[in-house]
Amino acid sequence: MNTRITSLFGIDYPIIQAGMIWCSGWQLAAAVSNAGGLGLLGAGSMTPEVLEEQIRKCKAATNKPFGVNIPLLYSQVEKQFEILFREGINIVFTSAGNPAIWTPLLKQHGLTVVHVIASVKSALKCEQYGVDAIVAEGFEAGGHNGKEETTTFALVPLIRKTTPLPLIAAGGIATGRGMLAAMALGADGVQVGSRFAASEESSAHPAFKQKIVDSGDGDTFVALKKVVPVRLIRNSFFHQVRQMEESGASAEKLTELLGKGRAKNGMFEGNTEEGELEIGQVAALIDRIQPAGEIVREIMEEYTLIRKTLP
Hints:
Elements: H1 4-9, E1 15-17, H2 26-34, E2 39-42, H3 48-61, E3 66-71, H4 77-87, E4 91-95, H5 99-108, E5 112-117, H6 120-128, E6 133-137, E7 143-144, H7 152-162, E8 167-170, H8 176-184, E9 189-192, H9 194-197, H10 206-214, E10 220-223, E11 230-233, H11 236-246, H12 251-258, H13 262-268, H14 292-309
Parallel strand pairs: 1-9, 2-3, 3-4, 4-5, 5-6, 6-8, 8-9
Antiparallel strand pairs: 7-11, 10-11
Helix pairs in contact: 2-3, 3-4, 8-14
């Protein structure tokens, strides 16, 4: 299959595995890349030393292209970029920050730069500062959600109308049907997070993976808007957050409740009641834990089949 995204990254299928914190280690990234998609290491939950180790393990496990997702809001981002330069990584996805700050340096070192956005304003900034492609992530997604609350079905055509840059759709996509819908809206490829979070190779704790599989319609909700908006599975921690938000708690009080390591505690260590469990709405569609390569094949098979049935 040939799209601007497959050409940009040198991959077989325009399927990108999201670089999710605590879920996207070298085993998952290598498995997706070996299956023909683009695997990403999720550097947001990695120290520079761990990132370096993960990159080297991923290199040993695949000879296909892979990349790294780096949220720009973290304090050690400069050290993480230095590791990418030193290790010869040539694909980076940046998120949760301003592309103007780091894109010129990344381009100077020869990297292909993709930035995650949730608004037209951010898309125009990406074009202005030389980003190579955009991930347009709708409000259905887990992780850091856009404050504009624009859903994928509305966001993707808006961004397509705004900029000619190669466009990757994200948020609520886990199947071939979802991929076909995104491409019809103007996307050149898709980014899949939640389904890969529940894959066999995901570095998430088995209890969190099972929580994803068990979740249904209405079991996720966006919270912590005063801090960093994230979509969470409803659990004891979530209900604490909602109670505080409804009583008008300040950003400082919510940050205090969040504390340090709450996401690690939930997604990586398996505390499914007191931990932070970030996942997208599409988790309600996920009914089993599968190998990542099988997920890629199923998405492509369904995409091809459904496309043939359309008039």
